[in-house]
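User:
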Amino acid sequence: MRNLMTDTAHDDSHWGLLLARDCEAQGLLRVTAPYDGSPVAEVETCSVQHVEAALSAAYRQYRDRTQWIPLYERIGILERAARLMTKEHSQLALLAAREGGKPLADSQVEVTRAIDSVRLAVNELRTNAGEVIPMVSAKSGRDRIAFTEHEPIGVVVAVSAFNHPLNLVVHQVATAVAAGCPVIVKPSEETPLSCLRFVQILRQAGLAREWAQVIVTCEIPVAERLVTDHRVGLFSFIGSSKVGWMLRTKLAPGVRCLLEHGGAAPVILAEDADHKLAAAALLKGGFYHAGQVCVSVQRVYVPGDHARGFAESLARMAGRLIVGDPTDSRTEVGPLIRPGEVDRVHDWVSEAIAGGAQCLAGGKPRSETCYECTVLLEPPADARVSRLEIFGPVVCVYGYDQLDAAIEAANSLPVAFQGAVFTRDIDLAMHVYRGLDASAVMLNDHTAFRTDGMPFAGLRESGLGVGGIPHTIREMQIDKMFVIGAGGR
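Assistant: Predicted structure:
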């Protein structure tokens, strides 16, 4: 078995395990390109025995406080990791594009963001300390002082998703390293390579093996064994709400939980909206990564008199997008992650059309792996494209008569994440902002806008807890207080 502690070559076809203790691999996972099914690599997979070895090693490091990594060393490791990632920028982008199907131009942006995310973690460590507690606010606190410091919460177990194979892992793993927590990460079986490479980079940067380990498995019992163990301090999950909420019910008592699911992001255009600006923004927000983004534009509400005109304009632009091989620099929209997703999206679109929706662009598979960029006008309210997260290149446009009715429709689903409003009227913008069920509302921008330091939180069925680099670090720590008395004076 290859020892990836010392092997820095990451463009070969075979990847070994990244566990703290050498064990025999259970088998091999064949990673293929979602665009054409061509082989990308083979990855050794893990068994329940690997899970036990990984948890034992991580928990041992956490329980032995003499092994905790000092703050200055964590800063140094992350700084060196950011420099290594910068040197490998092109290779990391190509790797992500090959295994995940996101167009190369967007994968390059993802790598830049991932590097920035690591640096944001360093900035958080340099600037965020504990606090002094004002003890003299109570008579009993006289002659006492108190302060808090941040301590790691424990072993972090992270389950990641395929759609941002590098940056999502950075948000889960680099934050754990920053917080001082040993971390075990299970990447998506479709996109394990970016995760493996990032953990390799952390080790090259000086992180000991036991502090960052990777479990690659396609077997549900193995994954559940990892997640539900009593030695887990925090469980971080990015993926479907069905799986996330199910796993939450199986956590051991006291385990903290961060869940990031999806939504069906709403956008409201006011009467005075700049349609040209809105169409350009929603084109990107709706079809970026073929719509496989948890805050991708899905439901667009437009004043009734303008709904068809806006939808037709958006459809014309969507029809001009270049769909194809994600490793081709000209490609703007790549494949869905697996052929079955093409079939699913087409079923949903066909159902909406049969129910009365007008298909103004797309509406059919382009190949076994790619779906045409689709714009639907007035899908029925009970169609799946109106009720559930599409996670595909489909944008739905609805006309409305009253603004508050559009807000009510936007709020009608059990999911809530990010939303948007297009208007030149600040009072109207504030009205929509206050009315939308959302953790963030964008003005004159699409719902998928994000910087890696801002809070990022799904509400209701869309998630639990707050993401974003500084916020995740804080979720992975506890505030420990020390109260000092005057010694009887």
